[in-house]
Amino acid sequence: MPDIETDGVIYYRGKANAALSVLIGLLLLGIAAVVLTQDQVGGIPFSEDLKMLAKFLALPLGLVMVAAHIWHVARRGPTVVAGKEGITVLYTPKAVGPIRWAEITGFKPFRHNGNPYLGITLDNPSMTLYPFREIGRPLVKGLGPKDAHLELKGKMMDESVGRIAKNLEEMRLVHSWKR
């Protein structure tokens, strides 16, 4: 759950998908370990096909799932902070922001390949993003709608993208002179 303070909102890392991926990866590794170290379980022998599947599919897939998601589960701290000055994105290698409320014209939730994103529309994207041109590259991909200049990954936040867009739009209207 996000922390709602008097002058802002702090969104934390959503960990449900990553934790499930680590769990499934560990399950695959466990199955592969049993199949590759035993000849049978409960009197039922393993076929050569099952041993090959465990060796060339379950073992590498389990390793990749655990290795790719364990850092995400272990990371702590906020990922997006919205305050009086604007929005700051903290899950990039260096913080991007604050992006001032006056420079933001709106928010647009969308999906790309089934993954939720929050699009941020800027009044003058080239001038707003110029100070963050190197560190903000993960946020500027052009995946979503043409009017979404910044794209925040929905899985990096602990609340639904639609609700986040609604809350940030309310904050933008309160802290900006643009309507």
What are the low-pLDDT stretches, counting only 5+ consecutive residues below 50?
none
Number of strands: 10
The residue fraction in helices comes out at: 25-40%
Order of helices and strands: EEHEEHEEEEEHEH
The DSSP helix count reads: 4
Overall pLDDT, averaged?
86
Biggest sheet overview: 5 strands, antiparallel
Shape descriptor reads elongated
Q: Give me the Rg, rounded.
A: 22 Å
Sheet with the most strands: spatial strand order? 1-2-5-6-7
Q: What proportion of the residues form beta strands (DSSP E)?
A: 25-35%
Question: Terminal Cα separation, in Å?
Answer: 28 Å
Q: In terms of structural class, how would the helical and strand content be classed?
A: alpha+beta
